[in-house]
């Protein structure tokens, strides 16, 4: 059990948005991750803690998409108008909203400023995909000096192998790893 200070801890949920929630994932379905993330958000709000909801948006014309030369580029093409919209019912008054244009939630956003101005030193993290948006945000949060906690059952990926590799090999080096029921506010 990890005890948290509600005045210094923020929940950051990555990419719980329509276009990503329609993907096939493992080891947890997107429905399970959304349910776990929503429950965590309600619990954080009830404690008076900060909730940050992050979505990714590259623009209708992909003008805001990363441009680097890679072997497996992100598929381009038309997306539904609501692709970048956060899941229905997820956002509550008082939540902080951050739109990113990369995998990670720190680069090119005001996330760090929003957290530091609120006295946050610990981030509890979940979302989709474990080894993309979550991992990139985790690494950057660690590099920014935050204490990082990943809620394993609030994350999922495009395959169980990718999820497990991140959870078991990368995340223990830069974070604590828990399940949703292993947190409390002290």
From TrEMBL:
CDD domains: cysteine_hydrolases. Pfam families: Isochorismatase. Keywords: Hydrolase. InterPro entries: Isochorismatase-like_dom, Isochorismatase-like_hydrls, Isochorismatase-like_sf. Residues 9-178 form the Isochorismatase-like domain. GO terms for molecular function: hydrolase activity. PANTHER family: ISOCHORISMATASE FAMILY PROTEIN YECD, PEROXYUREIDOACRYLATE/UREIDOACRYLATE AMIDOHYDROLASE-RELATED. NCBIfam families: PRK11440.1. This is Hydrolase.
């Amino acid at each position: 059990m990890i005890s948290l200070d509600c005045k210094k801890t923020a929940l950051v949920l990555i990419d719980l948005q329509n276009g990503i929630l329609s993907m096939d994932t493992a080891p947890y379905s997107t429905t399970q991750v959304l349910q776990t993330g929503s429950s965590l958000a309600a619990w954080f709000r009830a404690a008076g803690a900060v909730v940050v909801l992050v979505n990714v948006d590259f623009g209708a014309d992909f003008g805001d998409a990363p441009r680097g030369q890679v072997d497996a580029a992100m598929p381009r093409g038309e997306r539904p108008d609501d692709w970048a919209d956060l899941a229905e019912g997820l956002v509550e008054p008082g939540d902080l909203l951050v739109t990113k244009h990369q995998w990670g939630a720190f680069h090119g956003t005001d996330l760090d400023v929003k957290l530091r101005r609120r006295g946050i030193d610990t981030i509890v993290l979940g979302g989709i995909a474990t080894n993309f948006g979550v991992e990139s945000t985790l690494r950057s949060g660690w590099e920014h000096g935050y204490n990082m906690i990943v809620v394993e059952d609030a994350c999922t990926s495009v395959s169980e192998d990718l999820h497990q590799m991140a959870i078991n090999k990368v995340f223990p080096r830069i974070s604590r790893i828990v399940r949703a029921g292993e947190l409390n506010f002290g």
